Amino acid sequence: MAEIQTIRRNLVLKQYEIKETPEGKQFTFSIRFVMKNGELVFIPRAVAAGLPFNGKDNRMRGVLPVDAQNETTGHVTPVHIDGIIEWNNKKVRM
């Protein structure tokens, strides 16, 4: 049985801040999180996006779903950093 990989939340937030690769392409990631109403959400491919309010003060980050060609497939979803459960198929721990 394979060991479950984990990643610390502070490293997740550092990776989130990477907006593009050295080649100039958008940095994509997968994320699983719990919304405020308790709904579990999984986005298999997403990019970092801005929010219409100061997200860092509110401990929120914006996530935008994209397809394989990095074309938008949805709308910006606010994610509370305490609700992030999984990042790039790794369990998030404090």
Based on the model shown, name its key terms.
7-stranded mixed beta sheet, mainly beta, single chain, 94 residues
How would you sum up this structure, described in words?
- The chain has 94 residues and is mostly beta strands.
- It has a single domain (6-93), classed as SH3 type barrels, CATH 2.30.30.
- Helix content is 9%, strand content 39%.
- The protein has one helix and seven strands.
- The chain has one helix at 9-16; strands spanning 6-8, 29-34, 40-49, 60-65, 77-80, 84-87, 90-93.
- A seven-stranded mixed beta sheet has the order 1-7-6-2-3-4-5, with helices on one face.
- A hairpin with a 2-residue loop joins strand 6 and strand 7.
- It is globular and about 35 Å long.
How would you briefly describe this protein structure?
By secondary structure, the chain is mainly beta.
